[in-house]
Amino acid sequence: MLKAGLRLACPDCPIEVVLVKAPTDEVELTCSGSPLVDMDSPRSLGGHPGAEGDGALLGKRYVDEATDLEVLCTKAGPGQLACDGRVLGIRGAKPLPSSD
Amino acid sequence: MDLNLLLDMAASGHGDRPAVSAGGESLTYTDLGRLAAAGAELIGRIGADAVVYVGPSHPAFPVALFAAGAAGVPFIPLNYRLGRDQLEALLAAHPHALVVTDEKWISDLRPEWSRPVTTFLASLQAGESSGGGVPSPGEADDVAVVLYTSGTSGTPKAALLRHRNLASYVFSTVEFGQAAEEEAALVTVPTYHIAGLANLLSNLYAGRRIVYLENFDPEAWLETIRTENITQAMVVPTMMARVVRFLDGADAEVPSLRTLAYGGARMPIPVLEEALARFADTGFVNAYGLTETSSTIALLGPDDHRAGLLADQPEARARLGSVGRVIPGVEVEVRDENGSPTPGQEPGLIFLRGDQVSGEYAGVSVLDAEGWFPTGDRGWVDEEGYLFIEGRADDTIIRGGENISPAEIEDVLMEHPAVADAAVVGLPDDEWGQRIAAVVTIEDDGNGLAPEDLIEWVRGRLRSSKTPDLVAFWPELPRTPTGKLLRRQILADLSATVSSGGSAKAEGRPVS
User: Fold this and answer.
1) Cα–Cα–Cα angle for A57, A60, A63, nearest 5°?
2) What is the pLDDT of residue B482?
């Protein structure tokens, strides 16, 4: 089971994420089809030739509404993040007023 | 999920922006990242197991924090205003810490482990630490920061904040890189306060330049806002009171200032209303939180302040005195003395839950089985979710079996035009259990104001059971640097000047 705070990486592109909200169920997180791996796993950063979409952007949050999963992109890359095959949507920004 | 992840993101997202400046020193996010890595090497080389910071708001502060994170050791900011004995006692608890400190302490505060802030930065910039191995960085469950709480109740407690607590706070309240290029935050809260830490992390993640003003003074503060084009600022209530007094009815004339946040202690409504009038074009934000909750857990935003000022209905206007609604990721529950949720909007003990809530002291968690943290504050939540804080549960006066919140009486006293500051405490009483004593400071000479006048003032506005039995005029009230009342000290001084059951309405003076 994935736990909030866990950091994961794409084995094939520079994308790295941190799990902000753990999913309610067991899921498989992928980046353009490649399952995400632990941060210390071997990786090739060649990218996903012909990847669709805008990739993942630094500091943006991506959500899967079906499982309430939310990840934060901590390193940008061209791949497309998905949860059990569902492409993650970008979460709209509604910043709070600055309090500190 | 650790604090250095925030710095890595900031360095790669907005690395060339200025991150922090003070006293002529300025660092970009890229500089911060590089210096933190060099600091981690230094920590590894000397074998330090913590980084203690006893110093001013200076660019060395974020460098020391992130160096500790990169080396996987806790960061421990201490109050440099503490007396020598207290500082030495706290330092003794961390015998193998790298101590980054002000020059004036360096000569005799454990010299072999100490570095003055300026030489600490200069040596890292010169790359003198290279050659050592790099220790492994902190992880989500590691302790990131140890904060000794301000301790209005006596001995300071070491609150532990883990990387995941602080990172959760930032991730749920700040949008990465949300600050426009010109935004700058003026910071006047000290380094050893949770607000000093939280604003550093929030502004870094937002990409907002931090400007430190070490010694608060109303004129210097206003002038810095104008010269540095400050867009965001945060003050504690005592600072706000000093600013409006300095302005003396004039407009603040700070066109760049978009938001002014306040917190750290209770804001008197008359001070707030005066400040809203003097800063007419600035949005106000009231932030409530505790050290143990990684700073802010509830916010009263600019729209709430405007609505409160314009409101006709008393409920809406009363919200100016609330701390707003809880932020995403935090839950609040109000419980009675037996631990059951209070019905409706009944006041009770405030419990909080969420990823940013640590509730842990020196390894001992005070969270209950469901993860709720007892804040020790009393309050209630209104029908639209606005949280009202009455004050510390320990400060509640129990007079003849009735629970009386000092804050309610203090607010009424502060509304009197001649009263500048007020504190209400319970004195031991044989008949009532406790009787209500008020200590006030008055403007100028108060035009012959007598204690009896203030007793009548309160009696005319609150129930007679909430009317002080005694009012004393003092030249000033003891407060912590962040504006919290030192009620214990007031109680002790007051008890020394009035004998129990003695002349109840006499004018007292504290023994000095």
Assistant:
1) 115
2) 76
Q: What is the pLDDT of residues B348-400, one digit of tens each?
A: 999 999 999 999 998 799 999 999 999 999 999 999 999 999 888 888 898 88
What token pair was written down for B227?
């010269």
pLDDT in tens for each of the 100 residues of chain A?
788 889 999 999 999 999 999 888 889 999 999 999 999 899 988 778 777 778 999 999 999 999 999 999 999 999 999 999 999 999 877 778 887 7
Span B122-164, pLDDT tens digits: 889 887 656 667 788 888 899 999 999 865 556 678 999 999 9
| Contact criterion met (CB < 8 Å) for A93 and B175 | yes
Residue in chain B nearest A74 by alpha carbon: B9
What is the four-CA torsion angle of B276, B277, B282, B286, rounded to 10 degrees? Answer: 0
Q: Which residue of B has its CA nearest to A75?
A: B9
Could you tell me which chain A residue has the CA closest to the CA of B184?
A: A98
Per residue in B435-454, pLDDT tens? Answer: 999 999 998 777 789 999 99
Closest CA relative to residue B246, chosen from B212, B282, B219: B219
Backbone angles phi, psi at B247, to 5 degrees: -65, -30
Using an 8 Å Cβ cutoff, are B207 and B185 in contact?
no
Q: Mean per-residue pLDDT for B339-352?
A: 93
If you count residue pairs, one on A and one on B, with CB atoms under 8 Å apart, how many are there? 83
Residues 319-378 of B with CB under 8 A from A: 327, 355
CB-nearest partner of B164 from A5, A96, A97: A5
Tell me whether A60 touches chain B (CB under 8 Å).
yes
ipTM of the complex: 0.92
Chain B residues inside the 8 Å CB shell of A93:
175, 178
Two structure tokens written together for B258: 């978009």
Please give the residue of chain B at the shortest CA–CA distance from A71: B171
CB within 8 A of B10, min separation 6: which ones? B19, B29, B32, B33, B204, B205, B207
Mean predicted confidence (pLDDT) in B30-47: 93
A100 with B283: Cβ contact below 8 A = no
Among A10, A8, A13, A12, smallest CA distance to A69 is for A8
Examine the pLDDT at B68 and tell me if it is beyond 70.
yes
Q: Where are the beta strands (DSSP E) in B41-181?
A: 50-54, 75-77, 97-101, 114-116, 143-148, 158-162
By Cβ distance, the residue of B171, B172, B178 closest to A93 is B178
> Model-level pTM?
0.88
